[in-house]
Amino acid sequence: MSTAAQMTGPRLPWTRRFLQLPLTRIVLGALVLLLAAFTPEAIIHSYVAKAYRPVWPEVLSAGVALLAYRFHVRRAEKREAAEASGARALPEVVAGLGLGFVMVGAAIAALAATGAYHFTRMNPWSFALVVPIGEMVFVGVLEELLFRGLLFRITERALGTWPALAISSVLFGLSHLPGSSATVLAIAVTGVAGVMLTAAYLVTRRLWLAIGIHIGWNYTLGTVWSIAVSGHPAQEGLLTGQLGGPEWLTGGAYGLEGSVVTLGVLLIATAVLLRRAAVKGTRVLWRDARAYAWGRGEA
């Protein structure tokens, strides 16, 4: 047997090679996740009156998506999904929520310092401030499972850490493109947010920190500060203020994620997280990537 054959192992049947292709794994995994996430939503919305379904259907759907991800990884990859196990979930989600809160606060403070943001009032507490939590949990969990759990992780094994980081972040930014309020700067900032969230995953090789940041950022921006989130119109939240100035500074209708100030905050957070990942010895995967990519065996 040649040296090349010994390195790559026996050639698998074309059906197994096709199923092991990174793109195939990503697409099949995404289909499983989307079906698991949206089926409970559809059933609940069909049979439960709106007055009786605040918050919990979205949280339930997020939980079902997590279970579906773990089941799919166990069946398709023949391993336990350590990146989505319950170990360290609570402290890492809490840490992520705090980081999301701090990053939004830093961007608001910078805008206030330039005169682009003026605080006007604090609104009274109401249950309306709790309702968005369900949607934020659903979006945060599902997007992290899709973009970090599937897209980045599988692409990383095929191409290496840095190409996977670039590909997953560009696609994360482009996924927020629909909508007339999305500008080139907004999509670029969202792409950098994807880099930051992937860096958070690299720190622990688990999804929980990134999930916490994602939820914390969206909730703090939209419900605490009453600012549009990724083009979704702003709702009255806990704090109300006014943004004024050029679109490149305030983000315009897209929200703070279209601001150059937010770009700066995200770049700083990304640098800190990547540095932390390097200090903790995060692996950069390259070896045996070709064998994995073309279905000749596990890398």
TrEMBL record:
Keywords from the named record: Membrane, Transmembrane, Transmembrane helix
Domain CAAX prenyl protease 2/Lysostaphin resistance protein A-like as annotated: residue spans: 129-219
Domain of life: Bacteria
A Pfam cross-reference name: Rce1-like
InterPro entries noted in UniProt: Rce1/LyrA-like_dom
TM stretches of this protein: 26-48, 54-72, 93-119, 125-147, 159-177, 183-203, 215-234, 254-274
Name assigned to this protein: CAAX prenyl protease 2/Lysostaphin resistance protein A-like domain-containing protein
Species the sequence originates in: Archangium gephyra
